[in-house]
Amino acid sequence: MHEWIADNLRANGGTYQTCICAVPALARRQGLVTVTCDPRNLEHVLKTRFDNYPKGPTYHAVFLDLLGDGIFNSDGDTWLFQRKTAALEFTTRTLRHAMSRWVCRSIHLRLLPMLQDASLKSGVVDLQELLLRLTFDNICGLAFGKDPETLAPGLPENAFAVAFDRATEATLNRFILPESMWRFKKWLRIGMEATLFRSVAHVDRYLSAVIKTRKLEIDDGQNHDDLLSRFIKKGTYSEAFLQHVALNFILAGRDTSAGRMKSVWGNDCLEFRPDRWLSPDGKRFEMQDSFRFVAFNAGPRICLGKDLAYLQMKSIAAAVLLRHRLHVAPAHRVEQKMSLTLFMKHGLKMNVHDRDMDSIASELRKTRQSAAAVPAEVVAAGA
Ligand code: HEM
Q1: Are residues 155 and 113 in contact, defined by beta-carbon separation less than 8 angstroms?
Q2: Handedness of CA 268, 272, 277, 282 (dihedral sign)
Q3: Which of 46, 171, 303 to mutate to test the pocket of ligand 1 (most atoms within 8 A of CB)?
Q4: Cα 370 to averaged position of ligand 1 atoms, centre (Å)
Q5: Residue 61: pLDDT above 50?
Q6: Ligand 1, atom nearest to 86 Cα
Q7: Domains in the chain, number
Q8: pLDDT more than 70, % of the chain
Q9: Is residue 173 part of a domain?
Q10: Which end of the chain, N or C, is surrounded by fewer C-beta atoms within 10 Å?
Q11: CA 303, 304, 308 angle in degrees (round to 5)?
Q12: Which among 244, 255, 308, 340 is the best mutation to test ligand 1's pocket, defined by most ligand atoms within 8 Å of the CB?
């Protein structure tokens, strides 16, 4: 599906219009859908005429059972109020410290030991599975102060995580059906609608218990720095609202997206070249135009957790790549999955090898020795 849309975009110069059901009378009634990856159009939609492009009633109806009127699923004043409240929290340093704490804990206590084990056994790991579990644990820690430890040896099944994934998958299914059809199935409570109902009920029970416990702990004078506790301390929100705050953040924290058009990135758009983000002399990081790189959205609805996500990614990359070399397992096929956020259908199977730390240490020693050997007059001149 993603590949098909990308092909259509390539064939149509980056923008095209289509309809959901190609029956002329129906198409006219439903209206056309515009698909675009042109940075100028994205700027127009996401920023210049932001008010003209709300998520709208279709999106709202599809997500209502899962996300309620949370930040992800609201427009206008309901969205603005939540955005302002949440944006205030995201500017505080405590949230960055909290993310750093959760991510370091899961890297050192669980991810690294699991990679070490795979490397000793010359085994294969599904890196996507490990990282999805890690980010899920982190976002639960950050959102409501409870790490469900889904990243653990043997990859145990976690009922809350499973219910959450099922609920998002069943919600996505609504997009493929005409609204009347999924509403009818919801009314009969059959198929994916039955799954959605059960999964949402499970997630709601879990979060409701977390909120009750947290309220008691706060009344007891305990100190918590998670997002939910900050909203509770403000004292004015209903339990349903708090539940949706937590849920919307969990969905937000699992987001992944990508872009790959020649018209945007040049002929080598499919190559992994992180140096695109470096200045021509290769020394400085340079921000890309946010309408070219929209993985975090752009404009007034830009991802609030972007900096936290970078903190998390850099912490993981540094800790893992210092210790290991990773190679995609032979014959492993990387294909996209049809899902709400971008996943690989068969995961990312990788072989893990230990990195030769002795050679790194001796390189470092050499650099230090040559720095120490710089003549005193050169150091003085430099100062
Ligand atoms: C690599 C990781 C991430 C990516 C690629 C990403 C991407 C995005 C995207 C594309 C949106 C816009 C979604 C939409 O409007 O439909 C978004 C919104 C949002 N993200 Fe992220 N996100 C990431 C991580 C996080 C994290 C870790 C947090 C929280 C700690 C977070 C919090 C939010 C929030 C609150 C919104 C809603 C903003 C609004 O509607 O005003 N994100 N993110």
Answers
A1: no
A2: negative
A3: 303
A4: 45
A5: yes
A6: 35
A7: 1
A8: 95
A9: yes
A10: C
A11: 105
A12: 255
- CA–CA separation, 108 and 114 (whole Å): 10
User: What residues form DSSP beta bridges with 33?
Assistant: 18
In Å, the largest CA–CA distance within the chain is 85
Task: Determine the distance separating the centroid of ligand 1 and the alpha carbon of 267, expressed in angstroms.
Answer: 29
In a domain, 282, yes or no: no
**Of residues 251, 272, 228, the one with CA closest to residue 340:** 251
Q: Give the count of alpha carbons within 13 A of 173, CB side only.
A: 18
Judged against a pLDDT cut of 80, whether residue 338 lies above it is answered with no
Atom of ligand 1 nearest to the CA of 308: 27
Rounded Cα gap, residues 223 and 232, in angstroms: 12
The pocket around ligand 1, CB under 6 angstroms, is made up of 71-72, 83, 86, 139, 142, 249, 252-253, 255-257, 295-297, 301, 303-305, 308-309
Coil, helix or strand at residue 370 = helix
What's the start-to-end Cα distance of the chain, in Å?
59
> Which residues span the domain enclosing 110?
56-257+294-355
Residue with the smallest CA separation from ligand 1 atom 3 is 255
CATH of the domain at 299: 1.10.630.10
SS3 325: strand
Whole-angstrom CA distances from 98 to 147, 192, 214, 250, 251 are 12, 36, 17, 15, 18
Answer whether 324's CB lies under 8 Å from 355's CB: yes
pLDDT 10s digits, 92-149: 888 899 999 999 999 999 999 999 999 998 889 999 999 999 999 999 999 988 899 9
Q: Give the tens place of pLDDT for each residue, 301-319.
A: 999 999 999 999 999 999 9
**Å from CA of 219 to ligand 1 middle:** 31
| Atom 39 (ligand 1) nearest CA | 301
Write the CB contacts of 82 (distance below 8 Å, at least 6 apart in sequence).
Answer: 70, 71, 74, 245
Q: Is the pTM of this model over 0.85?
A: yes
| Cα–ligand 1 centroid distance for 342 (angstroms) | 13
> Is residue 336 one of the residues assigned to a domain?
yes
What tens digit of pLDDT does each residue of 238-278 get? 888 888 888 888 887 766 556 778 888 889 988 988 888 89
